[in-house]
Design brief:
Elements lengths: L9 H14 L6 E3 L3 H7 L6 H13 L7 E3 H12 L10 E5 L2 E5 L11 E4 H14 L18 H5 L4 H10 L16 H17 L9 H5 L3 H17 L20 H5 L3 H15 L16 H16 L17 H14 L8 H5 L3 H14 L22 H12 L17 H9 L19 H18 L10 H5 L3 H25 L5 H14 L18 H10 L19 H17 L8 H5 L3 H20 L1
Antiparallel strand pairs: 1-2, 3-4, 4-5
Length: 634
């Protein structure tokens, strides 16, 4: 007998999305298992604690990526199953379309194939239109563009990996050396190489790809394609919403607020402040979210008007915003008139009138982020309190690498600022689990923290994190205490985070039988032995060896591990004399992208090779060693 599965109406789905977004405060797209009871409560479906624990146990048992994070689609599946009154243990394939929401898959607790996944046509349309515009002139994408937003073109277009690689570079330039992308005679294995390159590069810029592989993308699985594209697009949209990138954001300081606090805000929070800064200047009501508060388009009309006035004063453009749309009672029509004004600023992107009136928070946030990027309208803004550029420290390359590594593993909440986002110890404790150091979560204090004594609860977590590092992971933590982490001390936090990242990088070597403790010498010896076997003359004496700056030891190693993949006409060798700095950088870019293309999860940047940053050089060689040994064992 076929099990009855309760279908969810569009209104119910929107209510569930609103509830999910309230718990998913960092907009990571995931909630942690321990937040599930609160999420059910928010969705007006209260369950006793024991029932929630049962659900979590079942979920974890069938959680193929073992990240213990629950996506919106997974939450909808659990909700549907509970509402159906009878649990389904079998896979039931259904493809339904209901008011713009498409559902794919069935309702199994065993396989990800059997999870019902839903996605909205609105997001698909928004992403197609964004990509069509962004890559319109790219010669390598002419066989794909323009895509039709009304069909499934988007899901087929990612199959060869070219579009994904281009989107990654659009979001964070120079992430992928485009000489490495296969663009001609694309047999299946060439497309797979591109997809592996895209996934490893997406990981390097902080996208969570733990539950996606090249086969999923080749098959064009809609929820995975949309999820990955949203992460990639979001990295690009949010890249400049940071005070070190635009000092004008200092104008958003509140009364009595410290610069440190303003700099600690997530991009989403800064974006909301930016909108409200302009709304206050317009003398109109501020907003508290990008969903309910923007449905009537009023905030958008005033925001556009303020931006246009600012641009006119700066003689950049002469656009007069027609505010008469505010008098139109029909909200869909009003939203359309507003978007026509946005088009005058070349910012009609991501939202349709219906996305505005339905309060689609994800797409509206993207719309506003694009508006900010195109027209921040903060140049020469009144910067008070005598704060200037000298007090603003930009994130270092090393800090960004660590932060991207954490986010790629799917930690929650999303890490926007390395030090202040780690002061409650929760991210560090999640990282311990990623490197197979068991955490007793009964000892951990979780938010919401009490109003009084909140910092004490966070400090207890940090003390526990240091104890685990010292007593279980056997890290070198001399002079590091929980208080150092709780205070956001860069020196002490980096020392612990580096050891976690090193453990993560060499973990695959331990798994392959090279022992729990993998010393640097083991990796170094493997590099040199591997190079010698194929008579390569680029051996290195240490991870500080200046020969690494040429990129040649890495490229030679890749040639040994994956014969025939290196295109030597792309590599600069000087038989006599030193390589020029530009040649070194060119080789380094090629080396990093090639490492990712052959399947190594590499977080190091080209500059790390050129400058011979020994920590990142070690992670690069360890990743190549792990990939090589894995390949040999299969």
């Amino acid at each position: 007998m076929e099990n009855h599965i309760t279908h969810i109406s569009r209104d119910d789905l929107e209510d569930l999305r609103d509830a999910f977004n309230k718990i998913d405060i960092d907009n990571s797209g995931y909630v942690s298992d321990f937040e599930l009871q609160e999420l059910f409560r928010e969705a007006s479906f209260s369950l006793p604690g024991y029932k929630v624990r049962e659900i979590i146990e079942i979920f974890i048992a069938g959680d193929t990526n073992k990240d213990e994070k629950i996506s919106f689609e997974e939450f909808v599946s659990i909700y549907q199953e509970l509402k159906s009154k009878e649990f389904s243990e079998t896979f039931r394939k259904t493809i339904t379309r209901r008011d713009g929401i498409r559902c794919l898959g069935g309702m199994s607790q065993i396989s990800s194939e059997g999870t019902q996944h839903s996605y909205s046509d609105e997001e698909k349309v928004a992403f197609v239109n964004w990509i069509n515009k962004a890559l319109a002139k790219d010669p390598d994408c002419q066989h794909l563009l323009p895509m039709n937003p009304d069909d499934g073109s988007l899901f087929a277009s990612v199959r060869d990996g070219i579009l994904l690689c281009k989107m990654i570079n659009l979001s964070q330039s120079d992430t992928i050396d485009e000489r490495v992308i296969n663009t001609k005679k694309l047999a299946t294995f060439k497309m797979t190489e591109n997809l592996v390159l895209a996934l490893n590069s997406a990981s390097a810029i902080g996208c969570t790809v733990v539950s996606i592989d090249a086969h999923d993308l080749m098959a064009g699985k809609p929820h995975l394609v949309l999820g990955l594209l949203w992460q990639i697009i979001k990295v690009g949209l949010f890249a400049d919403i940071e005070i070190s990138r635009n000092e004008g954001l200092i104008a958003l300081l509140g009364d009595g607020e410290s610069l440190e606090h303003l700099m600690s805000l997530a991009p989403e929070e800064l974006l909301l402040r930016w909108v409200n800064y302009h709304l206050r200047n317009a003398g109109t009501q501020t907003i508290g979210n990008f969903s309910d508060d923007i449905k009537d388009s009023r905030a958008y009309f005033y925001l556009l008007d303020q931006i246009a006035q600012h641009e006119e004063r700066g003689y950049k453009m002469r656009v007069k915003i027609d505010m008469s749309g505010l008098n139109v009672h029909d909200l869909d029509r009003r939203a359309e008139l507003m978007l026509q004004q946005a088009a005058l600023l070349d910012c009609r992107q991501f939202v349709s009138p219906q996305d505005v009136t339905s309060g689609n928070s994800k797409l509206n946030m993207a719309f506003v982020a694009n508006l900010y990027n195109m027209h921040p309208a903060l140049d020469g803004a009144d910067i008070s309190n005598g704060i200037g550029a000298a007090q603003i420290e930009a994130e270092t390359k090393e800090e960004r690498t660590f932060r991207n590594w954490m986010n790629s593993l799917g930690v929650s909440p999303h890490v926007n600022h390395l030090y202040c986002d780690l002061i409650d110890g929760l991210i560090i404790l999640q990282l311990y689990e990623k490197v197979n150091v068991p955490v007793n979560w009964k000892k951990v204090n979780r938010p919401p923290y009490p109003y009084l004594g909140a910092n004490m609860k966070k400090l207890e977590n940090c003390n526990y994190a240091v104890d685990l590092g010292r007593d279980v992971a056997h890290f070198s933590l001399v002079g590091i205490g929980g208080q150092n982490l709780n205070e956001g001390s860069p020196l002490h936090t980096l020392a612990l985070v580096w050891q976690l990242m090193r453990r993560y990088t060499v973990r695959v070597l331990s798994d392959l039988g090279d022992g729990e403790k993998v010393k640097d010498e083991i990796i170094l010896n493997w590099v040199n032995t591997t190079l010698t076997q194929k008579r390569k003359d680029s051996q290195i004496s240490s991870f500080k060896d200046l020969r690494i700056s040429t990129g040649l030891p890495v490229i030679d190693l890749i040639d040994v591990i994956a014969p025939g993949t290196v295109k030597w006409d792309m590599v600069t060798r000087r038989e006599r004399g030193m390589l020029k700095p530009a040649d070194k950088l060119s080789n380094a870019k090629y080396a990093i992208s090639m490492a990712r293309k052959i399947g190594a999860r590499v977080y190091a940047q080209p500059d790390d090779l050129v400058e011979v940053n020994p920590k990142m050089v070690l992670t690069l060689f360890a990743a190549l060693m792990g990939h090589s040994l894995k390949k040999a064992n299969h």
